[in-house]
Amino acid sequence: MARRPLPRILSSGSAHIARSREMARSAADSATDVLHPLITITRGLRLLAGSGRRKWAATPKERRGPALFLVAACVLVVALLPYGPLLTLISVMAVAGWKGRDRTPARKGPNDAELQRLRSLYEALVPYFSVPEDPSPLFAHGGEWDKAFDEYEFDADGRLTRLRVSYPAYFTDGEDSSRVRIEHLLHTKSGRGREYLFDWDEEGNELVMSVLPPLPTDIAAQRFVTTPGETVLGFTDAAAVRRTVPVMEGDTTRDAPPVVWRTGARSTEPHLLVVGRPGSGTTSLLRSIALQALAHGDVVIVDGNGTGEYASLTGRTGVLAVECGLSGALSGLEWAANETERRLIAANRARQSGHAVPDDTKRPLWLLLDRPSAFSHPAAADGRPDPQELLQVPLRHGRAANVTVVVAEQFDTLDALSRTVRTHTRARVVLGAATRDELASVLGAPPHTTPTPETPTGRGYARLGTGPVLRLQVPATPDPYDDATSDAHRRAVLDLLPDRHTPPGATTEPTDTATRTAEPDPEPAPPARTKVKPRPRQSQAPVPAAVPAEG
């Protein structure tokens, strides 16, 4: 983008304007030094007068007369004493000077190491914040760095923790590429290994860089204080949200700022897409969502990984099915599509007849799909439809039918998601290490923070619709059947699981469930799976039959 040259009057008379500005600044500094005692005494007199008015207002009316008589007597005595008025005037001036002194502690300047760091940072910003046509550049080689850096803070190691930068008005702060260059430079020069937040003030031409504290990773799965229709995805910075919820950390309770995702008929983002890499915590997030959803609704889980990560949910009250094979996934999603249509028809008929909506259409239904793209290739090879095609009805009409869809996918197979899934999942979460371009492609906007050098499990970013991009730390919700899970986290997940429930006509074997869920599917027979028959409803909606696991 070509920059327009400055007007000729600025370029021709630049030396004269610079000299006039320097003379005005010197005159103002000299006047301030000369008048400083008078300014101090005037401030003190104003404070003394204010204190006298407050004391007079606090004096009861019956005591004001004697107080006035006492003051008049003192004035008369002072007036009759030799040199009394002069000594009184000197005393009042002394008290006013003491009262009006500047009590602000003197600002300690940076030491030699910090000063060198600020100077090097200032010199590094000169090529980005200066143009040859500027007659009085704010950034120039060998210039005054204290005019550009209004505020700065250092930690005990001498590294910057906060910096306020004033930049020229002609800097293209509206272009993302220009801002990325400045953020990358400040991140590199200020020290790596930390996460920085960049707050751009385009109107004031200021940039504030601050170091963010790490998000807590010791918050385990628990009952969060939420209302029906609210799901806690994780926790973020205190300044990013206006709400806190009490959480348990060991034996103590504290308030933590949550990222709350609202679902239901009045939600603007009724469906969620979670993207990450292996080991980033996407399955833990789906497990956390399932545990929260079971408190008020029913859950259908489709596990494309086939590793038995959801075996602990099998046979629990509210868990309609846990599918790990292609046949089970197709039958479960087909039933979910028919159930969505049934709910829509029942609710429409009730409204047309002037009756209340049936209760069986109000109970939330959650469809949790972990890596649904894993079924695309087997379905195409077997001549069956892709399970993602069965999500069109729940995605498009799920909000009106209280049906919520949550899809978790990996970055490597993100292109395998159908267009319908991408379009209707407007709530997004990215977990694990990701580049700025990957975050922008999934979330729709880049974050205002630098990526973390070390990404713990469940660490990432979240964006609900068109809202801001928030840092996110998912509560620890591991598989309780995993041997690597700690006893505290295992107990926390097991305490949240509902009781086991065996519907009439269903045959399940509770022993070795996790092992049989992870076994490979035989061919050409339908794949073995662990499944619980959906609970019967009042309507005659088609429900997939329960298939017992093969021994």
The CATH C-level name of the largest domain is Alpha Beta
Q: Which stretches of 5+ consecutive residues score pLDDT under 50?
A: 5-15, 507-551
Number of helices: 15
Mean pLDDT: 83
Relative strand content: 15-25%
Proportion of helical residues = 25-40%
Q: Largest beta sheet: what is the strand line-up?
A: 11-10-12-13-9-14-15-16
Distance between the termini: 69 Å
Radius of gyration: 34 Å
> Within the CATH hierarchy, at the fold level, what is the topology of the largest domain?
Rossmann fold
**CATH superfamily assignment of the largest domain?**
P-loop containing nucleotide triphosphate hydrolases
Counting helices, strands and paired strands, the structural category is: alpha/beta
Number of strands: 16
Q: Main sheet, how many strands, which sense, barrel?
A: 8 strands, mixed
Architecture per CATH nomenclature, i.e. the level-2 architecture of the largest domain: 3-Layer(aba) Sandwich
Shape: elongated
